Amino acid sequence: TMKKSLVKRASFQSMRVATIRVWSNATSSSMHEACANAPRKKQHAMHAHSLTLKVDNIGFWAGLGYFYCFACYRLSCGFVYEGPKDILGGFKLDLRCASVSEPFQYEGHEHPLFLALTPEEEKSSICQICQEEGDEYNDWRKLTCIKCSYIICFRCATLPYKARYKHDKHLLVFRKKEEGNDHQGWCDICESEIVYSRKGGFYSCDDYCSTTVHVDCLLGKHPYMRPGQIKHNRLHEVLILHNKTMSRPFCHGKDHRCQDKLVFKKRNMTFCSL
Ligand SMILES: [Zn+2]
Ligand SMILES: [Zn+2]
Ligand SMILES: [Zn+2]
Ligand SMILES: [Zn+2]
Ligand SMILES: [Zn+2]
Ligand SMILES: [Zn+2]
User: Fold this and answer.
1) Do residue 15 and residue 92 come from a single domain?
2) Do 264 and 93 touch, CB atoms closer than 8 A?
3) How much distance in Å is there from the Cα of 51 to the middle of ligand 4?
4) Is 234 exposed, middle or buried (0-12, 13-18, 19+ CB in 10 A)?
5) Using one digit for the tens of pLDDT, what is the confidence trace for 132-182?
6) Which of 219, 236, 237, 266 can bridge 223 by disulfide, Cβ–Cβ 3.0-4.6 Å?
7) How many CB atoms lie within 10 A of CB 107?
8) Residue 85: its pLDDT value, please?
């Protein structure tokens, strides 16, 4: 059995290396660099059991090729930290959320943040960045400051604070909504307006260029998804493609053209979400 487990481990590692290679070929995005150094086992404040690093690909683990992170509820594919499987399936975290440990130093706040809210408090509190409220958002996990009452959800806490934009030689910096600032700028990417006082924030260049971009326009609505194939359910496959044709495709069943970085194709129909 010793030999067996060694073989198993070796094949796991070669699979891991292979996947890292595919990923680094596919993107130079810094959002994925973390995976190369990720430890195989991990304790996380959010879960009682230790989590194991796996690759959620079709075939390898008989998965669907994607998962929703239990902290930020973002759609993700590839690496996953997973708890032991129970009736509800396993607890899952993407690499970014799994790398959040206490005390968490969020660059946008002066004090360290903790997972210190009770489940009831977490459900009823509102993130000060995205300010999303309602049932759909209540499950997003939240970090809080013990010194003041600052609260931020995992989705906002794990957005890169600085991000590269190919048409600006400086790093763009995340800026939260600006109270009382009724001015507006223009998004360099989609060329529509950015209202500075709108919730959710935006990215801008602090070095004299007046570059401003929407968060979704810079990172995509699904920053942790890659082009490739996943399964919508056991029967239907979904192709994920770069959305880079000049004439954007019509979104099936919606009255818009899909503008996001990625599109999902199911049986010749195009969607901008799964
Ligand atoms: Zn997450
Ligand atoms: Zn948020
Ligand atoms: Zn504080
Ligand atoms: Zn935009
Ligand atoms: Zn600049
Ligand atoms: Zn669409």
Assistant:
1) yes
2) no
3) 36
4) exposed
5) 988 888 889 999 999 999 999 999 999 999 999 999 999 999 998 877 666
6) 219
7) 11
8) 80
Q: CATH no. for residue 179? A: 3.30.60
Q: What is the pLDDT of residue 19?
A: 39
Judge if 48 and 117 occupy the same domain: no
174: containing domain = 162-219
- CB-neighbour burial class of residue 5 (10 A; exposed 0-12, middle 13-18, buried 19+): exposed
Q: For the chain, how many structural domains are there in total?
A: 4
Q: Is the pLDDT reported for residue 88 higher than 90? A: no
Mean pLDDT of 253-271: 91
**Closest-approaching ligand to the CA atom of 108:** 3
Residues near ion ligand 5 (Cβ under 5 Å): 168, 170, 205, 207, 209
* Distance from Cα 259 to the centre of ligand 6, integer Å: 7
Interface predicted TM-score (ipTM):
0.92
240 and 205 part of one domain: no
